TrEMBL record, chain B:
Its EC number is 2.6.1.2. Residues 80-456 form the Aminotransferase class I/classII large domain. GO terms for cellular component: cytoplasm. This is alanine transaminase.
Length: 476, 505
């Protein structure tokens, strides 16, 4: 009997990430470049991750200075660091056990950080109350999501637990669901309408689950990933009513809430929308909302810190959730960064001018990138990009000629993976294929991060345009 | 009556209830942060609010957190990490050259030269290479392949990942995992979460918590009747018991694992914390390879280490790794796939691990101060372990095995029968009842032995000997030694407790 039979079937059934073949080839190409092999480019630009720092965006100085001072307190003597940096570091060190970032923290996170986060949430939501006891900080928002899914998903139940997820969807979530033994029930966002969520489609998806699985939760991503939509207040409230009526637990992945740039767009949290609906729904609809220090202008993905806020959960269930979170604590440095994220420098603070300059620069670059991406992509007849309103990615649609699709099939690749592989080889740009995220049958997309320095984006678009023309000609 | 009804919240309408939630999660308990700690936190809150109690501070001896107890971090490590966080400091001549050189190397390996970028999910490649070199040096030259190294979010993450990979089957074929009693409750929590079958093998308290193969055999044979035993976990040096396995014992365990076709999980996070005369840390991998190719090419194993213990005490960084040995390549591919779901381990923790495995060398500027700090920390930990053992052995009704390693004592307490009855009447486990009373009356927070597992009818608690570090602080201001504090307060409590339950009707 094969050894593979002797491992968890949930793990065995996990789909290999489509990106894997691309990552492997990227490493090979990087090695070839290092060895001096001649190519039409000198370096690979990797925008396949939602990782601004990797793409060249600089970390915010204030948060890094605070981290450095917390790590090595000798830095507080001397005048290298501004007064407000020192004060913040001192205050935050005072919240750590033994005054050190090397200690463990309480199960849900450093109490004062939880307090800061809850105050941030209240400010964000126009005063809707937020209780720190309902917040759990974890090594990344996906970690928290996995824990909540663990509670929801009964892998031994028959029928199996189902979770409604959008198409397209964040790939890690899809994989987490499979690993837990849950069934993903897809609902398709309407691309032609700016990736709008249509309630009839949610209903159709729910109906499709009959006899297949027992749907218990509805997973929403707002702002979107990979698609760059921002849900309207009206849409959010429709979803909330739907969840209440159909008895679904709401999972609101809101990690891009600080990345909204669409002119007509406004981020409204699920919690706020729920509160605005009023009783009885506001006291009963169960909601988990996720946020992170990885996205937004700070972009500190490598620190691995996120949180979940739980709303209207049964107190008895909360006790078990607490036990689950107690088995692995969140990195302290990430919580320091989180505290800075929810309490940035204010006007009048010595560090404010630099903070303002840096954040304005990132926002301006992002706005510029959005404009340029839409312009360039939409200029091609066989390439189209829905308006980018929020999030960190563009997810344009590729209209691939039949010959290209055929060639891809011969190579044993999905057509969009084939496109991405060729783009990597010939132009030194790494995107990820739409297959990774799910898409309507017969459609193809690519995803790339748009949180990059502006000149990097120009270079990307230049290489992409040249490649795309060539590719389309080859397969016409 | 349901909890909701008790709270006055209408039962109808909740989508997620205790009845329909994942039953496995309900079985997850983690005593180290469990009910007694929650009560301790509550008491601390009450003290802050001015509530009067017989003590002014809660002594939290429940967790192995050295820096929380005042242990200083290693200067060199913090210098490099500060440089990595804020690279402008590389221009600052306050930092030694060897720290800068390491920071530059780490930053070069990070996306966009920032520790804020995601890394590869298996961990930054040059750090895995450094870890492999460290293992080779530690194990006298036995080769280590960086591809077999997986960096993780603390050792706990790696342990849970391997278990997630290996636990499979239904009913009588469900994977059984052998774990020592007493054990570190992360294992029982993970096994409950995964619905694996926990197979208990008892360490021998009368022989300094030693492990014997006869007991392994007994446990295995019994388990074979209701599950499929496939994994054997061993913690060396032990937690909570602190025993350091002899070389002979490790060989016996490896032989047993080979005979019974078991995957070995060797939790070695306390590998630098060895104190007792005549005790030495032997890595499972080293012993395995020294047993010759019959074993070294067949026994499948994973060994775990972390940045949280030893002389580093950097629990808050969540740094760690596992090395997998003789894993089937196809299974390893599945493991690589599985770790990708976590995205990546925290990059500062990876950077810290790099420094631990690549510390200052004799010819480098920071070497002398580094060695001085390291030696001092390990000596202090050894001293605290000895002191704790000595103190507890002076209290009548408490016996404490020699603490050979790690950071805890696990003394045995004799509880009067009436105390046991009272506990049961209150629906409490007897040692939890004892520990709760100790917490309420003396403000000392321990973890009851029931949280770790113990032989039926015996009672224990785990006391982090690190706490002695913090009590040193008090000794100057209060003019008595930690010895006195524990013996007076603890001993008084214990004596009274004993008397109360002997003579109460």
């Amino acid at each position: 009997m094969s050894v593979l039979q002797e491992i968890s079937s949930d793990v065995r059934n996990m789909k290999q990430m489509e990106n894997f073949v691309l990552f492997r080839r990227t490493n090979e190409i990087k090695e070839e470049l290092r060895r001096g092999v001649r190519k039409s480019y000198r370096e690979v630009i990797d925008v396949s991750w939602g990782d601004p720092h990797r793409a060249g965006v600089k970390p915010l100085s204030f948060v890094r200075q605070v981290l450095a001072a917390c790590l090595y307190s000798e830095l507080m003597d001397g005048d290298k660091l501004m007064v407000d940096v020192k004060q913040r570091a001192q205050r935050l060190l005072g919240t750590c056990a033994g005054g050190s970032v090397g200690s463990y923290c309480a199960t849900a996170g450093i109490p004062q950080t939880l307090q800061s986060v809850s105050q941030y949430i209240m400010r964000r939501d126009g005063g809707v109350p937020c209780h720190p006891e309902n917040i759990y900080i974890s090594p990344g928002s996906q970690w928290a999501l996995t824990n909540i899914l663990k509670v929801l998903v009964n892998s031994e139940a028959s029928p199996r637990t189902g979770v409604l997820i959008p198409v397209p969807c964040h790939s890690t979530t899809i994989i987490s669901l499979t690993t837990l033994g849950a069934v993903a029930v897809p609902y398709y966002l309407r691309e032609e309408r700016g990736w709008a969520l249509e309630m009839e489609e949610l209903q159709r998806a729910l109906d499709s689950a009959k006899g297949v699985c027992n749907p218990v939760a509805l997973y929403m991503i707002n702002p979107g990933n990979p698609a760059g939509y921002v849900q309207s207040r009206k849409s959010i409230q429709e979803v909330i009513r739907f969840a209440a009526e159909k008895k679904l637990f709401l999972l609101a992945d809101e990690v891009f809430q600080d990345c909204v740039y669409g002119k007509e767009s406004e981020f409204v949290s699920y919690k706020r929308a729920l509160a605005e609906i009023g009783a009885p729904l506001s006291d009963s609809v169960e909601l988990a909302s996720f946020h992170t220090a990885s996205k937004g202008l700070m972009g500190e993905c490598g620190l691995r810190t996120g949180y979940v806020e739980l709303v209207n959960l049964d107190p008895a269930v909360m006790k078990h959730i607490n036990n689950l979170f107690s088995t692995n604590s969140c990195p302290i440095l990430g919580q320091i960064a989180l505290d800075v994220m929810v309490n940035p420098p204010q006007p009048g603070d010595p560090s404010y001018p630099l903070y303002l300059k840096e954040t304005q620069h990132i926002r301006a670059s992002l706005a510029q990138n959005v404009r340029r991406v839409e312009e360039v992509i939409n200029s091609f007849p066989d390439f189209s990009c829905q308006p980018l309103e929020g999030g960190a990615f563009a997810f344009p649609r590729l209209f691939l000629p039949p010959k290209a699709i055929e060639r891809a099939k011969e190579a044993g690749l999905q057509p969009d993976t084939f496109y991405c592989l060729r783009l990597l080889e010939e132009a030194g740009v790494l995107f990820s294929p739409g297959t990774e995220y799910g898409q309507k049958e017969g459609t193809y997309h690519i995803r790339f991060c748009i949180m990059t320095p502006s000149d990097t984006m120009e270079e990307i678009l230049r290489r992409l345009s040249a490649f795309h023309e060539q590719f389309m000609k080859e397969f016409s | 009556m349901s909890q909701q009804a008790v709270n006055g919240v209408p039962c109808r309408g909740k989508v997620l209830t205790v009845e329909n939630m994942n039953p496995n999660v309900k079985r997850v308990e983690y005593a180290v942060r469990g009910p007694i700690v929650q009560r301790a936190v509550q008491i601390e809150k009450e003290l802050r609010e001015g509530v009067k109690k017989p003590f002014t501070e809660v002594i939290k001896a429940n967790i192995g957190d050295a820096q929380a107890m005042g242990q200083r971090p290693i200067t060199f490590f913090r210098q490099v990490l500060a440089l990595c966080s804020y690279p402008e400091l590389l221009e600052d001549n306050k930092f030694p050259e060897d720290a800068k050189q390491r920071a530059r190397r780490i930053l070069d390996a990070c996306g966009g030269h920032s520790i804020g970028a995601y890394s590869a999910s298996q961990g930054i490649e040059c750090i895995r290479q450094d870890v492999a070199c460290y293992i080779e040096r530690r194990d006298g030259g036995i080769p280590s392949n960086p591809d077999n190294i997986y960096l993780s979010t603390g050792a706990s993450d790696a342990i849970v990942t391997i278990l997630k990979l290996l636990v499979c089957g239904e009913g009588r074929d469900r994977t059984g995992v052998m774990i020592s009693i007493p054990q570190y409750p992360l294992y029982s929590a993970a096994l409950a979460d995964l619905a694996a079958v926990q197979i208990n093998y008892y360490l021998d308290e009368d022989n300094c918590w030693s492990l014997n193969v006869a007991e392994l055999k007994r446990a295995l044979n019994e388990a074979k009747q209701h599950c499929k035993p496939r994994v054997l976990c061993i913690i060396n040096p032990g937690n909570p018991t602190g025993q350091v396995q002899s070389r002979q014992c490790i060989e016996d365990v490896i032989r047993f694992a080979k005979e019974e076709h078991l995957f070995l999980m060797a939790d070695e996070v306390y590998q630098d914390n060895v104190y007792a005369e005549g005790c030495k840390f032997h890595s499972f991998k080293k012993v395995l390879f020294e047993m010759g190719p019959e074993y070294s090419s067949t026994v499948e194993m994973a060994s775990f280490h972390s940045t949280s213990k030893c002389y580093m005490g950097e629990c808050g960084f969540r740094g760690g790794y596992m090395e997998v040995i003789n894993m089937d390549p196809e299974v390893k591919a599945q493991l690589t796939k599985l770790v990708s779901v976590r995205l990546c381990p925290p990059v500062p923790g990876q950077a810290l691990l790099d420094l631990v495995v690549n510390p200052p060398q004799p010819d480098e500027p920071s070497y002398t101060s580094f060695m001085k700090e390291r030696t001092a920390v390990l000596a202090a930990l050894a001293e605290k372990a000895r002191l704790t053992e000595e103190i507890f052995n002076t209290v009548p009704g408490i016996t404490c095995n020699p603490v050979q390693g790690a950071m805890y004592t696990f003394p045995r307490i004799t509880l009067p029968p009436k105390a046991i009855d009272k506990a049961k009447a209150e629906g409490k486990v007897p040692d939890m009842f004892y520990c709760m009373k100790l917490l309420e009356e003396e403000g000392i927070c321990l973890v009851p032995g029931s949280g770790f597992g113990q032989k039926d009818g015996t009672f224990h608690f785990r006391f982090a000997s690190l706490v002695m570090l913090i009590l040193q602080k008090y000794s100057h201001s209060l003019n008595f030694s930690p010895f006195c504090l524990i013996t007076t307060n603890f001993s008084a409590f214990h004596g009274f407790f004993f008397l109360f339950f002997c003579f109460t009707s």
